[in-house]
Design goal:
Blueprint lengths: L1 E3 L2 H8 L5 E6 L5 H10 L5 E6 L19 H11 L3 E3 L3 H4 L12 H4 L3 H4 L3 H17 L5 E6 L3 H13 L4 E6 L19 H7 L1 H15 L5 H14 L3 E9 L15 E9 L2 E8 L1
Helix pairs in contact: 7-8, 10-11
This protein binds pantoate.
Pantoate binds next to β2 and α7.
């Protein structure tokens, strides 16, 4: 695996190839990331991963400084997964001057759910993803980028970004990988202590129960069922931001006419100091 830090070296490394298959990460890689790399491999003629902890998507009170950086382990895992090129820019490589041009996704998609509780998050994500796409794919006739479905709203925003800017990139969604008890794999799971780790599965259980309840009753009961689900988690010591059922197409609340529409249950809640997110298509 070739490791490059600058945009110029990345472009040189990718020059012989026509169809990169790309996985963007912030490092601290777990099996979910590695599954994305393995799935990406047959989709392109060169497999590229990036590791970059993107300051732009962290609010000042969030965990940018303490976000786990596990360089050696990440490199070994990527190499074993068959990654060909690892792009690991330093901050000065990707942002040599303040990034004043930014990508602002539409408010109706970016200011709800995660974007409501993390204002500016999707501007930071969209901006860095656009820039990473330019680094990896500029001058290529086509390419593929894989994003995990655990970050459901992020994946949708990136799909729209690619569509709106007519980028010749196919976005492929990777299924969420789960631990044996059902907890969605996440870099932030490493923040949980033993007791919290045992409790953490309750988020996916709550989403499952909420999904089943909404499916089995009139759609008009949805808001009350969501409220009950949040209260049940709160009673166990969680601080839920949202547990909600949305349309898969636009992440808006379903209306009476949407009873048969494809839906997704999304949730975010804090356990101790760790904020976890998860979702389930129903
Ligand atoms: O999902 C992530 O790890 C990040 O949001 C991403 C897409 C790598 C952008 O920094």
């Amino acid at each position: 695996m070739k490791i490059v830090h600058t945009i110029a070296d990345l472009r040189t490394a990718l020059a012989p190839f026509q169809r990169p298959a790309f996985v963007a990460t912030m490092g601290n890689l777990h099996d979910g990331h590695i599954a994305l790399v393995k799935q990406a491999k047959p989709l392109g003629d060169v497999t590229v991963a990036s590791i970059f902890v993107n300051r732009l998507q962290f609010a000042p009170h969030e965990d940018f400084d303490t976000y786990p950086r596990t360089w050696e382990a990440d490199c070994s895992k990527l190499e074993a997964a068959g990654c060909d090129v690892l792009f690991a820019p330093r901050e000065t490589d990707l942002y040599p001057e303040p990034q004043t041009y930014k990508v602002h996704p539409p408010a109706e998609l970016a200011n709800i759910l995660e974007g409501h509780f993390r204002p500016g998050f999707f501007v930071g994500v969209s901006t860095v993803v656009m820039k990473l796409f330019m680094c990896v794919f500029a001058g290529k006739p086509a390419g593929v980028a894989m994003f995990g479905k655990k970050d459901y709203q992020q994946q949708m925003i990136i799909r729209r970004l690619v569509q709106q800017f007519a980028l010749p990139i196919e976005i492929v969604g990777g299924d969420t990988l789960r631990a044996a008890d059902g907890l969605a794999l996440s870099s932030r799971n490493g923040y949980l202590n033993e007791q919290e780790r045992a409790e953490a599965v309750q988020l996916s259980q709550a989403l499952k129960a909420l999904g089943a309840a909404v499916k089995s009753g009139p759609i008009g009961d949805r808001e009350q069922l969501e409220e009950n689900a949040m209260q049940a988690l709160a009673a166990r010591g969680w601080k839920p931001d949202y547990l909600t059922v949305r349309r898969r197409t636009d992440l808006l609340p379903p209306e009476a006419s949407d009873a048969a529409a494809p839906l997704v249950v999304l949730g975010a809640a804090k356990l101790g100091t760790t904020r976890l997110i998860d979702n389930l298509e129903i």
